[in-house]
């Protein structure tokens, strides 16, 4: 797959959202490609990797969740932001569990979208240059992003600080945190730290 580091893909069946985001990213010097449905988008995203993807959670045909699964989003080399309305929070949470980088709630401000996208692109570059290297019982149950969140938690970062480092919202950190605790059987952050630091013990 070739990389297209100046491109942003926008996948939304709402023309007003596509136009607004296109203008915003064009002004920032990105090359914007827009898609009105999931099928054409999945074909393009399978051939060339953009800098970032903006994906509406509600799509005609394939849903945003189905698109994430088709792309194997957890291992996709560009951050995928889910665009969701306020009533879509449970769906947005499901999207994060399926590999979305973060979600952006409508209505959004141009400034906050740009900031989140820049953070997401930078976080993805950093992730690609580091391997994390954590070892403990249950490490293989966690996704790459969950391991990154876990490292921040065990280093003592708050949800806000972890979000800043990883280029995601504190709410998204909470989603990952709950999932990590569920997978590792930890009831609180202290137990999580014990599990990770007690990696030498047999479980």
Set out the fold topology:
Elements: E1 2-11, H1 15-27, E2 31-35, H2 38-47, E3 48-56, H3 64-71, E4 80-84, H4 89-97, E5 102-105, H5 110-129, H6 144-154, H7 159-166, H8 170-184, H9 189-197
Parallel strand pairs: 1-2, 1-3, 3-4, 4-5
Helix pairs in contact: 2-3, 6-7, 6-8, 7-8
Describe what you observe in this structure:
By secondary structure, the protein is α/β, with parallel strands linked by helices. The chain has 2 domains: 2-128, 3-Layer(aba) Sandwich (Rossmann fold); 139-198, Orthogonal Bundle (Arc Repressor Mutant, subunit A). The chain is 51% helix and 16% strand. It is built from 9 helices and 5 strands; from the N terminus they run E-H-E-H-E-H-E-H-E-H-H-H-H-H. The chain has helices at 15-27, 38-47, 64-71, 89-97, 110-129, 144-154, 159-166, 170-184, 189-197, and strands spanning 2-11, 31-35, 48-56, 80-84, 102-105. It has a 5-stranded parallel sheet with strand order 2-1-3-4-5, with helices on both faces. Strand 3, helix 3 and strand 4 (80-84) form a beta-alpha-beta unit. Helix 2 runs parallel beside helix 3, helix 6 crosses helix 7 and helix 6 packs across helix 8 (170-184).
Top keywords for this entry?
single chain; 203 residues; alpha/beta; Rossmann fold; Arc Repressor Mutant, subunit A; 2 domains; five-stranded parallel beta sheet; 5 strands; 16% strand
Summarize the structure.
With 203 residues, the protein is an alpha/beta fold. It is 51% helix and 16% strand.
């Amino acid at each position: 797959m070739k990389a297209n580091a100046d491109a942003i893909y926008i996948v939304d069946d709402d023309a007003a959202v596509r136009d607004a985001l296109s203008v915003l990213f064009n002004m920032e010097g990105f090359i914007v490609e827009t898609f009105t449905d999931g099928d054409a988008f999945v074909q393009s995203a399978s051939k060339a990797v953009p800098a970032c993807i903006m994906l509406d959670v509600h799509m005609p045909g394939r849903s945003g969740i189905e698109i994430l699964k088709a792309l194997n989003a957890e291992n996709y080399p560009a951050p995928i932001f889910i665009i969701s309305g306020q009533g879509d929070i449970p769906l947005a949470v499901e999207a994060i569990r399926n590999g979305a980088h973060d979600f952006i709630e409508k209505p959004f401000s141009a400034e906050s979208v740009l900031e989140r996208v820049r953070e997401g692109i930078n976080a993805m570059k950093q992730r690609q240059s580091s391997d994390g290297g954590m070892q403990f019982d249950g490490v293989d149950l966690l996704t790459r992003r969950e391991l990154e969140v876990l490292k921040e938690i065990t280093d003592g970062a708050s949800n806000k600080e972890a979000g800043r480092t990883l280029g995601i919202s504190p709410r998204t950190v909470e989603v990952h945190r709950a999932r990590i605790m569920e997978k590792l059987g930890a009831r609180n952050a202290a137990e999580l730290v014990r599990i990770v630091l007690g990696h030498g013990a047999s479980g």
